[in-house]
């Protein structure tokens, strides 16, 4: 153990990162920045090729920095897994989606675990970062690695550490976001904490892998439930003829006991709409009904339909049916300033609008194209002509680099679901 600790402290440890997506790639490069020799492994040949050409596909990772790390010999990407055995530490950052049945799909974790198991070497530290239900590390990975005849905490180390990356956040990056770690044994926690301590300012050890897994689910369930609450408050405010954003802003002046959440067209991304279902699934297996998660899910997933219903009312009030109306959608990414449109509520809004017979086009500076089943859409230029020829411009993502003042001035009508237009006033501007 002392030998591996020394290798880590001297930044001589070889680090393998399995899964080079939104989570794995920034993490791999953070270790490379600190002088570690990092190998990224991914099953997607296009991603590996792109990285080896020095082209980053993750907004938070600059291609110039990627190139610098490749030239310095500190980062390389591989599509094959032989080199896993040469790594002192392996961090697993593969996807954890839901199946169609809304049950956890842990097949990526199992596949990655299998790759590690085949090449496990004495002294290796394995850390799972993929968000998952409490128990995964011990129930799925531990038995796999112990098949090799190794004993955890003595012959190899196993821990869970939730990823807290917030894509597009300019203030909180890997370095200044505290990292929670929980190992199968105290030695595992110590080793994982030592490793992350080389790249993050603060490490928070917890008592077990299950505790670390639960921390992440609490964080994301907290967000899902509070967003559900504020979305319901938005529906109430609409009925009461109140501006929900004015209410939130005024409430946020309370210096204690209140935290601002904002309504919108629904939940999106790879985390908040999905992670609480991992917890719900686990709890249902234990005969526990997770009521808050269920209710938040119902409210949040009703928001795209509410947006379309509002648009229908708005067009109706102007003597138009939604069918045949031309709508220019601004933003399809799941949140502002990112290109990620997985699970984006904008896609649900688009589907519902198409079903209603509306004609739609979109502009998103970060998302060049989207597919909805067989239909493909490309981002249109945001021009005066595009705005003037639409019956209504609908703001679905409030990207910071759009000039909303100009949009309100030029568009015939604007429906803002994100309060991107903030304090602007115009008879042609309506909010959620
Ligand atoms: N994106 C976020 O903001 C975020 C934040 C916190 C936590 N997470 C969690 O982190 C995990 C990864 O998320 P992501 O957004 O980086 O996903 P992603 O889809 O962007 O990247 C995952 C990568 O893993 C690769 N992969 C799949 N199977 C593999 C295997 N067997 N071996 C090697 N590579 C494999 C995929 O090709 C892909 O490149 C998920 O559990 C997610 O819930 C994501």
Present as ligands are: nicotinamide-adenine-dinucleotide
| Biggest sheet character | 8 strands, mixed
CATH architecture assignment name of the largest domain:
3-Layer(aba) Sandwich
Order of helices and strands: HEHEHHEEHEHEEHEHHHHEHEEEHEHEE
Shape: elongated
How many domains? 2
Describe this structure in words.
By secondary structure, this protein is α/β, with parallel strands linked by helices. It has two domains: about 1-205, Rossmann fold (3-Layer(aba) Sandwich); about 225-430, Rossmann fold, CATH 3.40.50.720. About 40% of the residues lie in helices and about 15% in strands. The chain is built from 14 helices and 15 strands. The protein has helices at about 1-10, 25-35, 45-50, 65-70, 105-120, 135-145, 185-195, 210-240, 245-250, 275-285, 290-315, 345-355, 385-390, 405-410; strands spanning about 15-20, 35-40, 75-80, 90, 125-130, 155-160, 180-185, 205, 325-330, 360-365, 370, 375-380, 390-395, 415, 430. Strands 3-2-1-4-5-6-7-8 form an eight-stranded mixed sheet, with helices on both faces. It has a five-stranded parallel sheet with strand order 10-9-13-14-15, covered by helices on one side. Helix 8 (about 210-240) packs across helix 10 (about 275-285). Bound molecules: nicotinamide-adenine-dinucleotide. The site of nicotinamide-adenine-dinucleotide (NAD) has 27 residues, from helix 5.
């Amino acid at each position: 153990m002392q030998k591996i600790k020394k290798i880590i402290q001297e930044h001589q440890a070889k680090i393998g990162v399995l899964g080079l997506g939104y989570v794995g790639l920034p993490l791999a490069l953070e270790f490379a920045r600190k002088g570690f020799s990092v190998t990224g492994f991914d099953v997607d040949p296009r991603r590996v090729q792109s990285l080896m050409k020095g082209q980053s596909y993750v907004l938070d990772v600059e291609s110039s920095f990627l190139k610098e790390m490749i030239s310095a010999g500190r980062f390389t990407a591989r599509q094959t897994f032989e080199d896993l055995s040469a790594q002192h530490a392996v961090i697993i950052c593969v996807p954890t989606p839901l199946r169609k049945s809304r049950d956890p799909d842990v097949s990526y974790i199992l596949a990655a675990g299998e790759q590690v198991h085949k090449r496990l070497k004495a002294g290796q530290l394995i850390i799972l970062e993929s968000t998952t239900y409490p128990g995964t590390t011990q129930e799925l990975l531990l038995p796999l690695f112990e098949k090799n005849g190794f004993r955890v905490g003595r012959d190899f180390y196993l821990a869970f550490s939730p990823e807290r990356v917030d894509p597009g956040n300019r203030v909180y990056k890997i370095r200044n976001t505290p990292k929670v770690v929980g190992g199968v044994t105290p030695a595992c926690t110590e080793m994982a904490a030592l490793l992350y301590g080389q790249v993050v300012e603060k490490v928070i050890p917890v008592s077990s892998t299950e505790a670390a897994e639960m921390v992440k689910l609490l964080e994301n369930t907290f967000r899902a439930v509070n967003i559900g609450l504020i979305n319901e408050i938005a529906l109430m405010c609409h009925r009461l003829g109140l501006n929900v954003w004015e209410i939130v802003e005024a409430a946020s002046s309370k210096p204690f006991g209140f935290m601002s959440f904002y309504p919108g067209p629904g939940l999106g991304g790879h985390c908040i709409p999905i992670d609480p279902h991992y917890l719900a699934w686990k709890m249902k297996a234990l005969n526990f009904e997770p009521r808050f998660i269920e209710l938040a899910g119902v409210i949040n997933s009703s928001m795209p339909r509410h947006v379309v219903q509002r648009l229908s009312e708005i067009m109706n009030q102007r003597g138009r049916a939604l069918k045949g109306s031309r709508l220019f959608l601004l933003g399809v990414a799941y949140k502002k300033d990112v290109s990620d449109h997985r699970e984006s509520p904008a896609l649900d809004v688009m589907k519902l609008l198409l079903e209603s017979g509306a004609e739609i086009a979109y502009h998103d500076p970060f998302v060049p194209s989207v597919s909805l089943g067989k239909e493909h859409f490309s981002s249109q230029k945001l021009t005066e002509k595009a705005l003037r020829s639409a019956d209504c411009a609908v703001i679905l993502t409030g990207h910071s680099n759009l000039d909303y003042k100009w949009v309100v001035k030029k568009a015939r009508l604007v429906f803002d679901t994100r309060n991107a237009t903030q304090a602007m006033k115009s008879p042609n501007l309506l909010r959620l």
